[in-house]
Amino acid sequence: MNAKATQTNPEGSAQKEAPKSEGKRRQVPRFFQVLLVPALAILTGFIIGAIVIAVSNDAVIAAFQNFFHAPSAALAATWKAIATAYGALFSGSIGSFTEIYHGIQSYYATGDGKPFLLAIYPFTESLATVTPYILAGLAVAVGFKCGLFNIGAEGQFGIGALCSAFVGYSIHGLPWFIHLPLALLAGAAGGAIWGAIPGFLKGLTGAHEVVTTIMMNYISFRLSDWLLNGPMKATGYRPLTPVIEKSAMLPRFFPDPQRFNWGFILALAMAVFVYWFLFKTTIGFEIRSVGANPDGARYAGMNIVRNFVIAMTLSGALAGLAGTSQVLGIDHWVGQGFSAGYGFDSIAIALLGQSHPLGVVLAAFLWGTLRSGATRMQSLAGVPLEIISIIQGLVIVFVAAPAIIRWIYRIRAISTQTIVLTRGWGK
Amino acid sequence: MTTNLVQKNEKKTNLRNRLAAGILLLVAGLAIILLFGLNNKPGLYTTFRLTPQGDKNVIPIPDLVLPVQPAIYILAIVAFFVGGWQLARGIRSTGILAGVVAFCFVAAFLIWAARDNSMDLVGMMNTSLVRATPIALAALCGVISERTAVINIGIEGIMLVSALASVMVATLMHNLYAGLIAGMLAGMIVAGLHAILCIKFKVDQIISGVAVNIVGTGATSFISNRYMQVHAEQLNNSGVFPNIPIPLLVKIPILGPVIFENNLIVYLMLILVAVIFVLLFYTRWGLRTRAVGEHPKAADTLGVNVYLTRYVNVILGGLIAGVGGAYFTIGSVGRFDKLMTAGKGFIGLAAMIFGNWNPIGALGSSLIFGFADSLQVKMQILKTPIPSEFLQMAPYIVTIIVMAGVVGGVHAPAADGTAYEKQ
Hints:
The complex is a heterodimer. Chain A is mainly alpha-helical. Helix content of chain A is 71%, strand content 0%. Chain B is globular and about 70 Å long. In chain B, the strands form 2 sheets. A 3-stranded mixed β-sheet of chain B has the order 2-1-3. Chain B has a two-stranded antiparallel ribbon with strand order 4-5. Chain B is mostly helical. Chain B has 2 domains: 12-120, no CATH class; 129-363, no CATH class. Chain B is 70% helix and 4% strand. Chain B contains 16 helices and 5 strands.
């Protein structure tokens, strides 16, 4: 479409030609403009989710069969169904403010911190859930920046988890300041190798990364099945690894059962690192250039193969770290089907966060808190937790297609930079 | 683009591919000897049963009995010979090479695995075909939508939705054909949504596909948990299409029990592959489809309606994927379980690329995946020393190797993945 423009300007190649009347619309702060569409997308997703909740609720259906006799009862039943579900979702993910308030009060009154810790349990649990999502989302985002679509985050996640668990339980008697970094490194390295292979193949032979990463996923699933039932199996009946040594665990901030741990800080640090790497280093610039326009980058003398390999290695390492953070910080062992779902979730997070580290962190917050609260919603309100997947999928559609949101809410075109996320089957 | 650079690159790639393929063949030959040829007791025989036991339809033929040691060495020599030929001269057709590698290796493996034992070869080939059915249908869906340059990685989601729709309607109406039609319609609707997102709203096609997958898995799992498992008797209990032996044809030895004794969906798959192949390469519709995929602007200039062609093809692809979805429920188990497609949609995409965006090629590569699937079931019975997990890995590893080494340059439709902006 605009091949010429992209060649001369590898950096912002995907920037759509700015509308001429842009000056007039500058009245709204730019920050607000950027956030408007995602915010409305999320809102719309929740509204549609509410409709699904209401329609699938027996009491609502029963009340509506009697709609013409008692319309207010039908509406009340609808409201109750939705409020119960979303209320449980909220209290499951954030917690209840009154309980937190009472917790603080009782702490000052009696010096007993327990009620407070109990009250913030849902919130810290959400933060613990968010941790791997940040890392996995960053993994996919790094791939996107280089024009690579890493569907293999799930496999890299699993391999990273297995590697770190192996180092975690097989080495005994090391002090934590050696054992923990070693376990983290093992996890990152495992994921990095798993990611580097497709990157390498893509660069050298042009084998498409979407297919190779999917294949690597299946290989990793079978490999972990074998490892968990054979060499890495703990004594016992179920296919699980042994529990890792205490010296390899990521320290937790609060006493049990709170699982919120240093992995979260690690994830935030990695987000900063990725930002620095992508936007402040030469390699990062090259990666983004290759992503924006491989031809332009090649003409500028950049080594495409090397950049593919670097990007996929970093991407794999981040996904591996995501698995590692889950093992060392939360579960302390690896079981079957451990990485299920993280692959697609991380793609969604990277898309929602527009492949920018800050965006990814915010999107991961949303994703993780929703996932964390959904369990409570299922038990309290009887709404299957898959409703979250529906809402999330819709949010992705709306974020990816701002035209729909603009059409629904009658907003005029916003001139934000659209980013090249994927590149077909790779050219 | 400087054509010089491109040509030079192409030459280099060709040479590299040739060398890679030759070395791959030599390695395969070596692997056959090392893995299967050595440490065999001489004088063992492997029996391949070519007539299914208790099958009255087929004209019986004698079993194939092979001496283990010599057979394996002959296969290794064949691989060496073709490999050497490839290194020295170069064989143009990568398909033949891939075929030779696969055949030698797999045959040697089977002879070795079933040594001193007998194996129901025909039954296994039939299982391969049945297991390849949803993969081939997914691949076919991919082929016809990508030939118009619309990537559809939402096939997994489409198949889940249509699997659920078909079993639900089939159970409610007590009619499997109604279920099949419902599955097709559901596939068309979901694919239609994908088409609208991609063509009208110009959403990145891969993102739209991911969204279709997430919503598809979420919605079907939601409905499954909320309704299908709770009211299983009324909603989730349809029965399956019976196997229909085709008169006369089923009597043919080997071919009969493999191909002509299956259920409706398997036949439908085979017919669809043939029909789409002919349509795509020998009709006006096919020419237009391919033109839209290769160079939409040129097609538009010549009066082809690019948008319409894309809508038609993507929705038609949805119909085919819908048949594939119906296979999972009313074609095999008669019940819906969440996430029951288990990645078959993605494997279908791999099969499509592997098969070079050609319906016949897609079927061929689907058969490889189906074969690997059935192999792993057989191996558990034969108790080979190799853990079954590694056998299950084999097709994926082979796909990677072949994509990287031998196939290398499959050619996607030139405009694949790009939205078309009418000027």
